[in-house]
Design goal:
This protein is mainly α. The chain has helices spanning 8-11, 22-48, 55-65, 68-95, 103-129. It is built from five helices and no strands. The radius of gyration is 22 Å and the shape is elongated.
Length: 135
């Protein structure tokens, strides 16, 4: 028998999406973006080490990196770094007690800032993605 003080709503199973709140999603994305940045760092060190193999091999590699598809990947990297940085600012603000009661609004506001910066970056880089020679 169910005690009178417990409602049926309290007894109902939680909705599957209930655990995926804004903070949980931001936490998971922050961890994933950190892994992507770490993997990029390792790859970057490996690529720069090609300079030790000689000038000709390094120049061929740099020519590859000027291909439009590589520049698109770099824009994705910029997006990941922007997200990680801005979400890190949000976390730092929470640590000092700012915006704790307005987590969702702060997250969305910072993501809008990130979207604006990313849009400006893409606009500046678009001629190079379309094939214009890098200076």
């Amino acid at each position: 028998m169910i005690p009178a003080y417990r409602s049926r709503k309290m007894m109902a199973a939680p909705h599957p999406w209930e655990k995926w709140r804004m903070g949980t999603v931001a936490f998971a994305m922050h961890r994933a973006s950190g892994v992507v940045i770490a993997l990029y760092g390792i790859t970057h060190v490996m690529v720069v080490s090609f300079a030790l193999a000689g000038e000709e091999g390094f120049n061929r590699l740099m020519d590859t990196f000027q291909q439009p598809w590589v520049l698109v990947l770099e824009m994705l990297l910029v997006a990941v770094v922007l997200f990680h940085m801005l979400n890190g600012v949000r976390i730092l603000l929470f640590d000092i007690g700012v915006g704790v009661r307005h987590q969702k609004a702060l997250f969305l506001g910072l993501m809008v800032v990130g979207a604006v910066v990313l849009t400006l970056t893409v606009i500046i880089t678009l001629p190079y993605i379309q094939g214009r020679e890098l200076a």
